[in-house]
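Exercise 7. Given the encoded structure of a 153-residue chain, write a plausible sequence.
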């Protein structure tokens, strides 16, 4: 019986896994999960097409990032959108200028990377990957801010 997940969906999942691992740094993450850094890198490697990240490790990565990037991608592939169970369970804490600076930096990184990429014409594959990596970092920062704001209600 054929698998339900399509090869292109595996590639999309691996791409998000790579972006998340680039943000989390595999060598650092290996200290808090059950596999080593090279194994983590294989989960995002296109050449390792049958090697997808186990769900417990995906949770470790998402918790380390403070944003459920990989789990959101899984939900999207299934036709769903991931939403927090209860906004009151947010990270809480006071929102401050450091939060504003973090959002500004990440958003500016997206704009800067996109402007650089567009300077020589349409985006190529490598430029798309670089811009999407910056977008994922921005989303993670905004997600953390949203949870912090929601927790302060």
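Solution.
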């Amino acid at each position: 019986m054929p698998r339900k997940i399509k090869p292109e969906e595996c590639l999309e999942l691996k791409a998000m896994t790579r972006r998340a691992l680039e943000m989390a740094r595999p060598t650092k993450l290996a200290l808090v999960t059950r596999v080593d850094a090279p194994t983590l890198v294989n989960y995002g490697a296109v050449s390792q097409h049958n090697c997808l990240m186990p769900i417990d490790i995906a949770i470790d990565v998402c918790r380390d990032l403070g944003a459920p990037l990989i789990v959101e991608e899984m939900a999207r592939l299934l036709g769903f959108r991931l939403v927090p169970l209860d906004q009151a369970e947010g990270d809480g804490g006071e929102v401050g200028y450091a939060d504003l600076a973090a959002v500004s930096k990440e958003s500016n990184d997206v704009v800067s990377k996109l402007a650089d990429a567009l300077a020589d014409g349409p985006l190529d594959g490598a430029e798309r990957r670089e811009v999407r990596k910056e977008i994922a970092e921005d989303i993670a920062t905004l997600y953390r801010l949203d949870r912090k704001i929601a927790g302060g209600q």
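Remark. The first helix runs from residue 7 to 24. Students should compare their own answers with the one above.
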